[in-house]
Each structure stands twice: as C-alpha cells, then as structure tokens.
Write a structure and sequence with these properties.
Blueprint: E1 8-13, H1 18-29, E2 39-44, H2 50-63, E3 68-74, H3 77-80, E4 86-89, H4 101-122, E5 128-131, H5 136-145, E6 155-157, H6 160-174, E7 181-182, E8 186-187, E9 195-196, E10 202-203, E11 206-207, H7 208-211, H8 215-227, H9 229-237, H10 243-256, E12 265-270, E13 282-289, E14 295-297, H11 305-329
Parallel strand pairs: 1-2, 1-4, 2-3, 4-5, 5-6
Antiparallel strand pairs: 7-10, 8-9, 10-11, 12-13, 13-14
Helix pairs in contact: 1-10, 4-5, 4-11, 5-11, 6-8
The structure holds ligand NAX.
Length: 333
C-alpha cells in the first residue's frame, strides 16, 4: 500500500565512498527517520565516482526498500541539493603523503565553499546540514559561512562516532553493557585533541570515576585510545572506519529529530560562547532537543580545571584552523 507521508529528501555527498556504501542502505531501510517515513535519496559524487555510484544505486534498487521513493544520481550540486531537507556532506579529499594540514584545509575549504553556496541556492531554507568529511568542524563552518540565507543553527559536524567509541571503551573497562553509559560528551574538535569528558559521565546511576577509580587509566589509556581509535582501525582493517562512521551519522540525525528523553549527545554546533568556548566556531558540545524539535546546549555541567584545559586546547586548534582556512579562502569571520 502507498505510504501517504511526504518523503524526506536527503542529499549525501561522497555517496559511492566507503561511508556512503555503509550509510545509504540504513537511511533507505528506515533506520534514520523511522519505519514509516518515506525517503528520497539525492546521491552526489564527483565525476570519477559516477560509475561506481551507478552500481550503488543498482544495489539500492535491488533491495526493494519500501520506504525509498526516488534515487537521484548527480555530480551537479544544484541538482543534488535541490529542495533537500537534509544534506549529509561525507565526501572530501583525503590527506595524501606530503600534504600539510594547511594544504588540506585549503583544498577542502574550496569544496565546502562551493557546497555551501549551492545549498544556499538550491536547498530548502529549513535544510539541516551534517558535515562528516574532514576536517569536519572547519568544513562545516566554511559551508555555513558560504550559505548566508540558511540559519547558522542548521549546520552540524559529527563527533558521535567519538562518543560511541568512548562509551564502548568505558563499558568494556567497567564490565557493563554499553547501554549503562550515559552523559558522555565529547568536547571540541573532531581530531585527536577532542576531550571525551569522563569526569561527568555516568555508569548506571554512579559517576564513572566512582566505578573506575583509576585516574591514570582515564588520562593515559582511555583518552588516547578514543583519540587514536580511527588510526587503530586503519592499522587493523587496512581501511578507515566506515560502518561505525555511518552508524554514527544515523545516530546523529535520528537524535536531532526527536525530543531528548534521557541521555544527551555530542554534536558540533555553532558556538555562542557556551561554557567559555569561543563564539563563532563549530565545536562539539552536549546537545539535547526540546519538545518542538529545537536543539539546545545542556546547561549546568560542571567542568574541572583539567577538563577546561583540555577543552580550551581543542578549541584553540579550531581557532587556528579557522584562521588558516579562512585566510586562504579570503573569507571573513
Ligand atoms: P572514501 O574516500 O571512501 O569516499 C569519499 C568519496 O567522496 C569518494 O567516493 C569520492 O569520490 C567522493 N568525493 C570526494 N570529493 C567529493 C566532492 N567534492 N563532492 C562529492 N563527492 C566527493 O572516504 P570515506 O571513508 O567514505 O570517508 C569520507 C570522509 O569521512 C573522509 O573525509 C573521512 O576523513 C571522514 N570521516 C569522518 C569521521 C567523523 O567522525 N567526522 C569519521 C570517519 C571518517 O574518517
């Protein structure tokens, strides 16, 4: 029987890449927006990826997903972003040997200027944008700056994978199911400087630091393990995180569209100076969603001097990224 609901239109860039391949099938199956919400997919690739994209679209067809109403395949951003409700910006140029961080910021910066401008021209004014392609915080800030008609609070970057990784490390250490771990915010930049705040995390109803009473483990094992988990996956698998990254995209969007009951989550948002974070960067903060679907930064978290110092270091890195990238691109902030 036909579903009478209007489909949610979702653009995905880098759709033929590794994360794209793990993500599209979950969106189309209903994992992101629910089991009775139709979706239309606008799949965006650069020209060299278009042939592989054709194969991915064939496989989507072959799943006969009842919720999937349409697949658009394109390398034209104005077609890809036309009337979209969500834009998941996954594709970006990877860092190659001999490339400096500043080079990467400039190369990807140009891409995200173009994507921001195209979103501004073609997407719904209510579009929400989640940037995954690295350096995702600064890429998101660049896209936001290049899309002046779309409100700043509709741009996000992803740290949910880091939160999920941190939760699973704590669950393993404490010998409890991962569902027992809550209130774990990853603060700052999606980079090894991020701070997974174990000091405010709960295990069951207790403070994590009352269950695991080993400060050295938190500082010298837990934090580096979470920060370097991406590199450890590459070393073991010979390829970067894809299924877990796609899962984190699903988690991020799913938890942005429904009111928060219980646990809050980490999302990079445009900062207004909350918790002493510099205003005007896209940085990871604890986010909850109210009854009308608007996000807010969770208030009242108490940060120790150690936590404040770690968060400051990560945000300083974001200020530096902004300075370098915006300088190269001739953008002002
Ligand atoms: P892949 O290299 O497998 O796929 C990227 C795809 O993007 C390719 O098919 C490529 O043709 C396409 N692409 C490149 N530039 C594009 C553009 N301008 N427009 C449209 N498509 C474009 O990478 P994959 O493993 O899928 O990772 C994608 C991005 O996610 C990388 O930047 C990666 O660093 C980042 N990640 C971010 C994470 C996060 O937590 N924020 C975690 C996972 C991942 O590392």
């Amino acid at each position: 029987m036909m579903n009478s609901k209007e489909p949610i239109r979702v653009a995905v860039t880098g759709a033929a890449g590794n994360i794209g391949y793990a993500l599209l099938f979950r969106i189309a199956s209903g994992a992101m927006f629910g089991p009775d919400q139709p979706v239309a997919l606008n799949l965006i690739e650069i020209d060299p990826g278009m042939e592989a994209l054709k194969g991915v679209a064939m496989e989507l067809d072959d799943c006969a997903f009842p919720l999937l109403t349409e697949i658009v395949q394109t390398s034209d951003l104005d077609v890809g972003f036309k009337d979209v409700d969500w834009a998941l910006l996954v594709g970006s140029v990877p860092r190659k040997k001999g490339m400096e961080r500043a080079d990467l910021l400039g190369i990807n910066g140009k891409v995200f200027v173009g994507q921001g401008q195209a979103l501004n021209r073609a997407a719904k004014r209510s579009v929400r944008v989640v940037v995954v392609g690295n350096p995702c915080n600064t890429n998101a800030l660049i896209a936001m700056t290049s899309a002046p008609d779309i409100p700043n609070d509709q741009f996000f970057a992803m740290t949910r994978l880091d939160e999920n990784r941190a939760k699973s490390q704590l669950a393993e250490k404490a010998g409890v199911p991962v569902s027992e771990i809550s209130e774990l915010c990853v603060w700052g930049n999606h980079s090894p400087t991020m701070f997974a705040d174990f000091t405010n995390t709960k295990i069951g109803r207790q403070k994590a630091t009352d269950v695991i009473t080993d400060d050295t483990w938190f500082k010298e094992t837990f934090l580096p393990t979470v920060g370097k988990r991406g590199a450890a996956i590459i070393a073991a698998r010979g390829a970067s995180s894809a299924a877990s990254a796609a899962n984190a995209v699903v988690d991020t969007v799913r938890d942005l569209v429904k009111p928060t009951h219980g646990d809050f989550h980490s999302v990079c948002v445009y900062s207004n100076g909350e918790y002493g974070t510099p205003a005007g960067i896209i940085t990871s903060l604890p986010i909850k969603i109210d009854a009308v679907g608007k996000w807010h930064v969770v208030e009242g978290i108490s940060l120790s001097p150690f936590a404040e110092q770690k968060i400051r270091e990560s945000n300083d890195e974001l200020l530096e990224e902004r300075k370098v990238a915006f300088g190269q691109l001739g953008l002002s902030f």
